[in-house]
């Protein structure tokens, strides 16, 4: 089967399509015939060497939507099930940017019935990150949350999930994104480059760091999206980061919300697996609204 990997670090040209043996599922695992797999910034980080792993093959891709092709014992899934899953890990030899991928059943959920595979593939990493970030922030209805990078994939899901919880969301994004983020449920909007009013918490999806920390009220909470990159606490503001965890049960809830129309999935462009380098090039150019998705 084909798989997108990197063996040397660098730019988009470092992505290789190689032929590898089709993996076999062990107990508690399933094999998915990939129908679609999103490309995320973490894949660019792996490609560039941000997470280490020099001297070995590193597989790309965390998100997947597809069909269960084989199942080990005690998975709860059947061959033929349409599923979505998160294949967590920065140092795995094979990822979801492949014809087939093996994942833990506990990282898997049935795919939203109303979504095509490309849209379904945008859910696992970004929606789980948004949901788990809100868990960590533990805001109550009526409290205020500022989300930087609000027009991005994580930001968009976070707005929708927070608004459902009764949290007052202010979106920090480009001027042209106001209509979009308000459609997600943001009640406030601050154009990028201007200074927001202090909020009870900031979810810093744009990775602004200390700049965004200054927008948290004294005693509030700051949460980033890159491990180890949060600024030091100050003014009684707690700081930390969200590191996504595979959670099939939570993913099933998010899939149900997507089916109900409560979560908006966005696909910017699709690319054939063999054109993975082109997709990485487009991601590096920036300005993508929604996710780029590889379709084997």
How would you name the CATH homologous superfamily of the largest domain? Medium-chain alcohol dehydrogenases, catalytic domain
Question: What is the N-to-C order of secondary-structure elements (H for helix, E for strand)?
Answer: EEEHEEEEEHHEHEHEEHEEHEHE
Examine the secondary-structure arrangement and name the CATH architecture of the largest domain.
Alpha-Beta Complex
> What is the overall shape?
globular
Secondary structure: number of strands: 16
Poorly predicted regions are none
Features:
alpha/beta, 2 domains, 6-stranded parallel β-sheet, Quinone Oxidoreductase, Chain A, domain 1, 16 strands
What's the quick description here?
The protein is an alpha/beta fold and 296 residues long.
Characterization of the model:
The protein has 296 residues and is α/β, with parallel strands linked by helices. The chain folds into 2 domains: 2-123 and 266-295, Quinone Oxidoreductase, Chain A, domain 1 (Alpha-Beta Complex), CATH 3.90.180; 127-241, NAD(P)-binding Rossmann-like Domain (Rossmann fold), CATH 3.40.50. It contains 8 helices and 16 strands. The protein has helices spanning 41-48, 117-120, 124-137, 153-164, 178-184, 210-213, 248-259, 276-285; strands at residues 2-6, 16-19, 29-39, 58-59, 63-71, 82-86, 100-104, 108-110, 144-148, 168-173, 188-191, 199-204, 216-224, 238-241, 267-272, 291-295. The strands form 3 sheets. Strands 3, 5, 6, 7, 8, 15 and 16 form a 7-stranded mixed beta sheet that branches. Strands 11-10-9-12-13-14 form a 6-stranded parallel beta sheet, covered by helices on one side. A 3-stranded antiparallel beta sheet has the order 2-1-4, with no helix packed on it. Helix 5 (178-184) links the parallel strand 10 and strand 11.
């Amino acid at each position: 089967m084909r798989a997108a990997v990197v063996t040397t670090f660098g730019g988009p040209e470092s992505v290789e399509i190689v032929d590898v043996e089709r993996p076999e599922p062990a107990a508690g695992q399933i094999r998915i015939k990939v129908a679609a797999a999103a490309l995320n910034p973490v894949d660019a980080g792996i490609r560039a060497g941000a997470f280490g792993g020099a001297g070995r093959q590193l597989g790309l891709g965390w998100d997947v939507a597809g069909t269960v092709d084989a199942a080990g014992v005690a998975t709860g899934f059947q061959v033929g099930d349409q599923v979505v899953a998160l294949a967590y890990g920065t140092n795995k030899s094979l990822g979801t940017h492949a014809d087939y991928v093996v994942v833990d059943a506990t990282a898997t959920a049935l795919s939203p019935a109303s979504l095509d595979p490309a849209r379904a593939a945008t859910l696992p990493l970004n929606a789980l990150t948004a949901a788990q970030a809100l868990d960590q922030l533990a805001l109550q209805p009526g409290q205020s949350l500022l989300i930087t990078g609000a027009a991005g994939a994580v930001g968009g899901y976070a707005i929708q999930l927070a608004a459902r919880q009764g949290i007052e969301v202010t979106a920090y994004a480009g001027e042209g994104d106001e209509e979009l983020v308000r459609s997600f449920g943001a009640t406030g909007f601050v154009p990028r480059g201007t200074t927001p009013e202090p909020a009870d918490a900031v979810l810093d999806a744009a990775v602004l760091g200390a700049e965004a920390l200054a927008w948290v009220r004294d005693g509030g909470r700051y949460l980033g999206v890159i491990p180890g990159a949060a600024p030091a606490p100050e003014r009684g503001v707690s700081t930390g980061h969200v590191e996504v965890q595979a959670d099939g049960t939570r993913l099933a809830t998010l899939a149900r919300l997507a089916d109900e129309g409560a979560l908006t999935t966005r696909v910017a462009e699709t690319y054939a697996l063999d054109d993975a380098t082109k997709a990485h090039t487009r991601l590096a150019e920036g300005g993508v609204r929604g996710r780029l998705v590889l379709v084997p």
